[in-house]
């Protein structure tokens, strides 16, 4: 009987602990988001050089001790903000991946590129700090996302073209996009207005390439 009561007490204590922990976890998550939001604001206003731990703490109205609890240094803070952007663009990847093959086949070359790129361009325009971070954050080739949606689109639109050639077209489209941004976007070092112009011109270049390829292989 005593053991049963002890077990019940232990279970109730565990439930109370879990119930108490959830609000604390929610508050902690909210504080982290506030800190990241403040970091993003300061990046846009002052550039990366103007972002300091104390400055972010003041903007987020968060005690500096709490800042260091979540982010031991400035680099970890910027990395966390970058990870948040990567998670958000990953959701865009997933949404594009849900579009069916027939839809991709029915679109013009220009509409295809517009459908593929506009969500990312819109995100970057709404989150200009991401454009600035993009100029300095490490880009590990081994961690690049697979070209799943782009490959799906090219395969759907050119089913009679050899697989090796389709793969080449996908790689060229990716190279045109990433190469153009690496050459022009990074040197801009956070010139958001200029970066927006580059992004839209890259979209035009990709549409022209895809149209030319399809005209040559599909007749």
UniProtKB/TrEMBL annotation:
Residues 1-18 have a biased composition (Basic and acidic residues). One of its GO terms (molecular function) is DNA-binding transcription factor activity. Pfam families: TetR_N (PF00440). The keyword Transcription regulation applies. The keyword Repeat does not apply. It comes from the Bacteria. Residues 1-25 are annotated as: Disordered. Residues 29-89 form the HTH tetR-type domain. Keywords: DNA-binding, Transcription, Transcription regulation. InterPro entries: Homeodomain-like_sf, HTH-type_TetR-like_transc_reg, HTH_TetR. PROSITE patterns: HTH_TETR_2 (PS50977). Residues 52-71 bind DNA. PANTHER family: HTH-TYPE TRANSCRIPTIONAL REGULATOR BETI (PTHR30055:SF234), HTH-TYPE TRANSCRIPTIONAL REGULATOR RUTR (PTHR30055). This is TetR family transcriptional regulator. It comes from Caballeronia concitans. The lineage of its organism: Bacteria, Pseudomonadati, Pseudomonadota, Betaproteobacteria, Burkholderiales.
């Amino acid at each position: 009987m005593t053991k049963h009561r002890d077990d019940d007490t232990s279970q109730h204590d565990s439930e109370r602990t879990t119930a108490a922990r959830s609000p604390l976890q929610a508050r902690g998550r909210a504080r982290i988001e506030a800190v990241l939001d403040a970091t993003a604001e300061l990046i846009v206003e002052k550039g990366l050089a103007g972002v300091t731990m104390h400055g972010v703490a003041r903007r987020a109205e968060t005690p500096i001790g709490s800042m260091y609890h979540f982010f031991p240094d400035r680099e970890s803070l910027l990395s966390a903000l970058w990870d948040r952007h990567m998670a958000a663009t990953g959701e865009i990847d997933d949404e594009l991946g849900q579009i069916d093959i027939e839809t991709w086949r029915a679109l013009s070359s220009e509409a295809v590129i517009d459908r593929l790129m506009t969500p990312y361009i819109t995100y970057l325009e709404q989150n200009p700090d991401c454009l600035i971070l993009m100029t300095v954050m490490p880009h590990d080739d081994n961690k690049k996302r697979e070209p799943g949606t782009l490959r799906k689109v090219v395969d759907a639109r050119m089913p009679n073209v050899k697989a090796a050639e389709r793969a080449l077209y996908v790689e060229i489209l990716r190279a045109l996009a990433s190469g153009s941004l690496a050459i022009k976007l990074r040197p801009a070092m956070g010139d958001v207005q200029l970066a927006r112009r580059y992004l839209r011109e890259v979209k035009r270049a990709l549409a022209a390439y895809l149209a030319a390829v399809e005209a040559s292989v599909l007749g």
